[in-house]
Design goal:
The protein is mostly helical. It has helices at residues 2-10, 18-24, 27-39. The chain is built from 3 helices and no strands. One of its GO terms (molecular function) is metal ion binding.
Length: 52
């Protein structure tokens, strides 16, 4: 449903280009997101599992 909502309201097609978008995210993008996210007083729990 989120795919339809995003396309309808924002005109973005994230579904068709999902892998391209995902592969374009850099370590710096993640760093900037986390910095902004945590500066708002939010908390996050991260669980990392080994690749199976």
């Amino acid at each position: 449903m989120n795919v339809l909502d995003t396309n309808y309201f924002y005109g973005e097609d994230n579904h068709s280009n999902y892998l391209t978008i995902l592969n374009s995210i850099t370590a710096n993008d993640v760093k900037n997101f986390v910095k902004e996210f945590l500066s708002q007083g939010n908390e996050a729990v991260v669980v990392m599992l080994p690749k199976e």
